[in-house]
Write a structure and sequence with these properties.
This protein is of the alpha+beta class. It contains eleven helices and 16 strands. Strands 11-12-14-15-10-16 form a six-stranded antiparallel β-sheet. A five-stranded antiparallel β-sheet has the order 4-3-2-1-5. A five-stranded antiparallel β-sheet has the order 9-8-7-6-13. The protein is globular and about 60 Å long.
Length: 417
């Protein structure tokens, strides 16, 4: 069995009797219950708490601020992207309901795979200011209602090197091995994330070995020790930039969990077909018959899979379940999508499809849904079919516009007869 599912409690696969009332209803925090007017000017704001996720080396950070205005509490949530979008998402919440705060944190940041770390007010303001600079320089609109937080954006100051390192120590995971260091280093090179590179490298070793023209994605990375050396690593990297792919080979040298030097051996463009072959892997799908109403099922999924994110499609909703941490970066065979445990596609018709690259994981997710549906009393689920494909199929189903997975499979079978 996949180790991620040996302990269901660790991966969030715990079941509750009544999912309908567990997740806080965030709708009460919209429009009428936004932050008090005084938040626009910053007058009378008393700082209570700042915390951030330790996911900075992935290029994204969740930030939660809590201020008090006289007797009114205001919570602010920011998704910070260090590569392209700066201040990417924002939500404000009036009041001080702990359950609602937790629900909002899960909703916005559950897929980041990080832990929350308390930081100082000065550190929080620095994070806001430094990410806001990306919005300003790239002319990217600010998210949400800027009037609720603009007073914070220019309040921070640059941190001196020791203070910057102290902040990064809080919001970055502790690197466990040199393979993880090489993966993070090349990931940050692809993202043109120079503050993070400064943290990962010694002053003499600071270099962007990839030097992409714009932020790119490290899709896959194979790391191996160079024969005859203890701390020199060869990396073979599949990089995606602007819908085009390149294959790079580099040598990275480390010492004491820092990069002390790197050189690019070669880099060349490759075709989409070559890239798809490099990324190709099996996908396992389970088709479920379901009588649970889709709104109730959304609550069930949110409760038993708190590390999920949701997105709306033409004929249904897609829920992607992420690992509770980013330990996949330690793997010598790194893949960008290895933090995704499984996907659940709930069609508006009620049909449910569970998909993923590991059959044990997909089976556990389907079993958890079946059990939760039964315990909740909202309806029933049962497995209709389980199918193994040599390549990803769920994405093709979503793009097909087919009203059901069974009809999609019938079409596929007819096409090959």
């Amino acid at each position: 069995m996949d180790k991620k599912f040996e302990n269901k409690q660790k991966t969030g696969l715990h079941l509750v009797p009544d999912p309908a009332h567990v997740r806080a209803d965030l709708s009460t925090n919209a429009s009428e219950d936004t932050a008090p007017e005084s938040t626009s000017s910053g007058g009378g704001a008393q700082f209570v708490l700042a915390e951030a996720t330790d996911t900075r080396l992935m290029g994204v950070t969740g930030l939660h601020l809590h201020h008090r205005f006289d007797e009114d509490d205001v919570h602010q949530f920011f998704l910070l992207d260090a590569e392209e979008f700066g201040l990417e998402e924002y939500e404000g919440m009036a009041g001080n309901d702990p359950d609602a705060v937790t629900a909002q944190k899960i909703s916005m940041f559950g897929g980041l795979g990080g832990k929350w770390k308390e930081i100082t007010r000065e550190e929080a303001l620095f994070l806001l200011r430094s990410h806001f600079q990306i919005n300003a320089e790239e002319d990217i609109p600010l998210p949400g209602d800027p009037g609720e937080y603009e007073w914070l954006l220019n309040a921070g100051e640059d941190l001196e090197p020791p203070a910057f390192t102290a902040l990064m120590d809080k919001i970055c995971v502790r690197i466990q091995n040199n393979t993880e260091l090489v993966n993070y280093y090349l990931m940050r090179c692809c993202g043109k994330d120079y503050p993070a590179l400064r943290y990962l490298c010694t002053p003499d070793g600071l270099t962007d070995v990839i030097d992409a023209p714009e932020p790119a994605s490290l899709c896959k990375n194979e790391v191996s020790l160079v024969p005859g050396f203890r701390n020199r690593y060869r990396a073979e990297s599949l990089i995606e930039y602007d819908d085009a792919y390149s294959f790079a080979v580099s040598i990275v040298e480390t010492r004491g969990k820092k990069v002390i030097g790197a050189e690019l051996v070669s880099i060349m463009p490759i075709s989409d077909w070559e890239a798809s072959n490099i990324l190709r892997r099996e996908e396992f799908l389970i088709d479920l018959q379901n009588t649970v109403p889709t709104d109730k099922l959304a609550h069930i999924i949110a409760v038993i899979f708190p590390t999920m994110t949701a997105s709306r499609h033409d004929l249904g909703s897609l829920y992607m379940i992420f690992a509770p941490d980013n330990s996949h970066v330690r793997d010598a065979h790194y893949r960008l999508d290895n933090d995704t445990l499984a996907s659940i596609y709930v069609l508006d018709s009620g049909e449910v499809v569970v998909a993923g690259s590991h059959p044990n994981v997909v089976g556990n997710v389907a079993d958890a849904l079946i059990t939760a549906a039964d315990v909740s009393g909202f309806g029933k689920m049962k497995t209709i079919t389980s199918i193994r494909f040599p390549h990803p199929m769920l994405g093709l189903f979503l793009d097909s516009g087919a009203p059901s997975f069974r009809e999609f499979m019938a079409y596929i079978q007819d096409s090959f007869e």
